[in-house]
Amino acid sequence: MTHMARTDEVFAAIAAPLRREMLGRMTGEDVPVTLLADSFGLSLSAASQHLAILRGANLVTVRKLGKQRLYRTNSEPLRAIAAWVDTYVPFWTDRLDTLKRTLETTPDDHQD
Q: What are 40-59's pLDDT values in tens digits?
């Protein structure tokens, strides 16, 4: 699978607000699917479907403990997205600086 395909899967997975909330809930701790389902008012089936999408994008890790499967956020794919977004920071910083200079040097049309 290409890097672009993996990135597309991550974007698709985090496009849903509920999945972003689920990632936040699993950050730093192992969480069983039953607790995730209860936390978000989901059926076990619905929670499992969301987790399958997150797993497919490599955004969660799964650890088996007895009969339970415990899920935890894997932030590595998000770091790749953040690095990509960071490439645009200089562009937007420059554009906003230009706008600021323009606004500061334009006479105020509302003066009496």
A: 999 999 999 999 999 999 99
**The tokens of 61 are what?**
């890790």
Characterize 72-81 residue by residue with b for buried, 16 or more Cβ atoms within 10 angstroms of its Cβ, and e for exposed: bbbeebeeee
Alpha carbon distances (Å) from 83 to 5, 60, 71, 101: 16, 19, 25, 28
How far apart, in whole angstroms, are the C-alpha atoms of residue 44 and residue 63? Answer: 17
Q: How far apart are CA 22 and CA 59, in angstroms?
A: 11
Q: Chain-centre distance of CA 56, in angstroms?
A: 14
Q: What is the CA radius of gyration of the chain?
A: 21
**pTM recorded for the entire structure:** 0.76
Nearest CA-CA partner of 51 in 39, 1, 83, 85: 39
110 residue type, one letter: H
**Going by C-beta distance under 8 Å and a sequence separation of 6 or more, which residues neighbour residue 62?**
55, 69, 70, 71
